[in-house]
Task: inverse folding
């Protein structure tokens, strides 16, 4: 059996951690491939969307804009707006990935999705092992989900006619169910729970905004609260560290029997 913190051990754990996400993402990938085939998109362009964009929600909206004849700059800007939340992902993970080589940072950034971020943040938040190979966990997790997503897209396009009514099966709920499981498992502190509730409430209240911009604003609100609480905790910790403690009284030393107390110096005052 591979040691847990070795490269192979971390990679194996990352791949296994992605299994629940894959189970939820496969129906979504099948649905996207089937819709792309139904809209007349050829297999090359369909696969390029999954290979390059690698984002279910952005691909669904982008597919609708492409097939409706929208201008490509507008489509690109819309997809970028939908994925703008990844800015917060990079900010949260930057302390862990900054020391990595540029090739590693690029690979992790390319494979970063909502589910990969949730698993990566949880893994990086654990105590640092003596042999820090946690990047292999993230890379393996992202690679497993990426391969499954593209295979599901290809199968959805190939069997598009058979899967024409896939959207009516309700299998897309598996995606949200897997994400809910990932998020709930991250609520390990009261602070995390408060931040999650604020972001979730904001997402529901702003869900009517176009192009999922409400999701970005809700994430911004949750991140702002997290930054405020973090800065407040640091200030409190700094005040506690710099607060001088009163000197503890030293116990009086007993005078040995048979010895006289030393004379006080001239001019000294009695205690």
Result:
């Amino acid at each position: 059996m591979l040691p847990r913190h070795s490269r192979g051990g971390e990679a194996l754990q990352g791949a296994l951690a992605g299994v629940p996400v894959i189970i939820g993402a496969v129906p979504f990938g099948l649905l996207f491939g089937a819709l792309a085939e139904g809209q007349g998109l050829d297999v090359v362009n369909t696969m390029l969307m999954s290979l390059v964009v690698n984002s279910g929600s952005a691909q669904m909206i982008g597919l609708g804009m492409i097939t409706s004849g929208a201008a490509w700059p507008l489509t690109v800007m819309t997809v970028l707006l939908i994925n703008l939340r990844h800015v917060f992902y990079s900010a949260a993970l930057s302390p862990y990935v900054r020391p990595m080589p540029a090739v590693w940072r690029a690979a992790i950034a390319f494979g970063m999705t909502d589910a990969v971020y949730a698993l990566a943040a949880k893994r990086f938040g654990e105590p640092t092992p003596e042999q820090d190979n946690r990047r292999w966990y993230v890379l393996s997790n992202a690679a497993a989900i990426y391969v499954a997503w593209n295979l599901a897209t290809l199968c959805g396009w190939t069997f598009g006619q058979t899967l024409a009514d896939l959207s009516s099966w309700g299998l897309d709920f598996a995606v949200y169910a897997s994400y809910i499981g990932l998020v709930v498992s991250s609520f390990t502190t009261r602070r995390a729970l408060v931040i999650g509730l604020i972001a979730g409430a904001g997402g529901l209240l702003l869900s009517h905004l176009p192009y999922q911009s409400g999701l970005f604003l809700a994430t911004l609100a949750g991140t702002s609260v997290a930054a405020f609480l973090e800065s407040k905790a640091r200030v409190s910790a700094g005040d506690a560290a710099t607060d001088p403690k009163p000197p503890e009284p030293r116990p009086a030393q007993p005078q040995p029997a048979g010895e006289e107390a030393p004379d006080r110096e001239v001019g000294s005052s009695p205690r």
